[in-house]
Design a protein that fits this description.
The complex is a heterodimer of chains A (115) and B (112). With 115 residues, chain A is mainly β. Chain A is 0% helix and 49% strand. In chain A, strand 5 and strand 6 form a beta hairpin. Classes of the chains: A mainly beta (115), B mainly beta (112).
Chain lengths: 115, 112
Amino acid sequence: GNSVTQMEGPVTLSEEAFLTINCTYTATGYPSLFWYVQYPGEGLQLLLKATKADDKGSNKGFEATYRKETTSFHLEKGSVQVSDSAVYFCALSRGSGGGADGLTFGKGTHLIIQP
Amino acid sequence: DAGITQSPRHKVTETGTPVTLRCHQTENHRYMYWYRQDPGHGLRLIHYSYGVKDTDKGEVSDGYSVSRSKTEDFLLTLESATSSQTSVYFCAISESPPNGQYFGEGSWLTVV
């Protein structure tokens, strides 16, 4: 089945630093790809998505590009803020239905931004 | 924010007792999901539903059952709770799965 590997961290950066969180996947067909963010004590929030190769998802200054040739979907942000401290999850659709039968998640990356 | 309510939000129960968690949505979305979140595992899919009375198993379904008798409610039942089912349970909904799922705030379950 489909699987996701992401750097686990914790990743500690200073405010205004450049962020990259790596995510690679194994899948048959053409899965949809997602990044979710989780703040302490809360549920997951959809951060961005991409549904086909070369799509770029973006939201709140975060970006990720669907790279089929390298099976990657790395999350980037040019200048992080303290408020970006959270756990970030990379996910992909389980089957060929774009996620109708659920998502497969990476283990999460804990991001800590220091002032 | 998507209208998703999970109940109870926190529960402590004893080994061997049945437990039911409820997910209620006000969005009229077709698809609903139950995941569990454990340290070092991310989220793992337990069961999902693609319509009223239409459900299927996810990757960690042993010891769990679900029911969906109406669009807005998706129930997760632990038939006989075990300590390994101590976890945080999240419900998610989706109208168009390629566009993502929207999550509830979670239910913290402790089995003692």
